[in-house]
Amino acid sequence: HEVLRVRRQSTPPMTSTGLEAVKRVIPPLSHSLHKGQCGKVAVLGGSLEYTGAPYFAASSALRCGADLSHVFCHRDAATAIKSYSPDVIVHPLPAGDATPPPSEYLLGWMESMHVLAIGPGLGRSDEMQRLLPDLLRTLPAHVPLVLDADALFFLAQGQNFELVRGRRNCVLTPNKVEYTRIARSMGLPDDTPLADFTTKLGGVTVLKKGRVDEISNGDIVYECAEENSARRCGGQGDITVGTLATFVAWADRSAKYVAPRWHNSPPRLQPPTTSFKTLTTAH
Question: How far apart are CA 41 and CA 58, in angstroms?
């Protein structure tokens, strides 16, 4: 597998290929644009205990350049998240026995969203964990996904990873522990090389976080060794999710619409830039 490395003093081929291709998916501003055309990001997360995580993800998407950012959360978290900022649109999910049920409520919104990020502050309650299989089975295949945190915990239970296998517009963002859990659920050794891990998942893109971030879709492996703060405070992963979701949405739309700067820039090139951006921001 080809390996490209990104460091503070970036050298070819990453500077000449990867980063330049990433720049091409950033939507060019124009007075003819309408609200939402530069990205509508949805975040599914937030529980009674964890209200900051989905807010960090949603606000990071806005700061990265998305037009609109929605948070779909447990109803116990909605008031707290709404109080953080008027910029984020917050949707409390209906109870599991409500009509329509939570999965149908979400699906009703997904047709107008450009990407769905699942996991920040989601929690592991029975109610939220029951929601995920229903959602992933029925979510239209064209909706790009970013899965993090408790969504990754869910994938590692039983054969749940099958729900995203072959979904090439899906990105997973595991740390070392989460990576190991999912590898074991697929019957792979803990130290399985990333390219083999992603191949087993049928081409899902994986951003494996660590001292050196690794990113692969099974065909190519990127490494990002950009130095960052030695602190490991809460919220860094959530910022990564929001930033990544925005770039994934831009890349997906650039592949669908033939515009001079939005054409022929594959979505697989987005995670390296997100990794680099998050690490430099951590300073």
Answer: 7
Question: How far is residue 57's CA from residue 119's CA, in Å, rounded to a whole number?
Answer: 10
Across the beta sheet with 220-224, the strand order is 2-6, 220-224, 213-216, 205-208, 170-172, 145-147, 115-118, 40-44, 68-73, 89-92
Helix (H) / strand (E) element for 278: namely: helix 270-281
How is residue 76 written in tokens?
Answer: 């116990």
Identity of residue 168: R
Residues 140 and 261: their CA atoms lie apart, in Å, by 27
The pLDDT of 71-83, averaged and rounded, is 97
Backbone angles phi, psi at 245, to 5 degrees: -60, -40
Bridge partners (DSSP) of residue 92 are 73
**CA nearest 117: which of 156, 199, 62?**
62
Distance, in Å, from the CA atom of 144 to the CA atom of 2, rounded to the nearest integer, reads 25
Lookup: tokens for 51: 């209200």
Q: Retrieve residue 5's tokens.
A: 């490395």
Torsion sign across C-alpha atoms 109, 110, 114, 120: positive
226-261 tens-digit pLDDT: 777 788 888 999 999 999 999 999 998 887 653 433
Q: What pTM did the predictor assign?
A: 0.87
**Could you give the maximum distance between any two Cα atoms of the chain, in Å?**
55
Alpha-carbon distance of 177 to 118, in angstroms, equals 18
pLDDT (0 to 100) of residue 144: 96
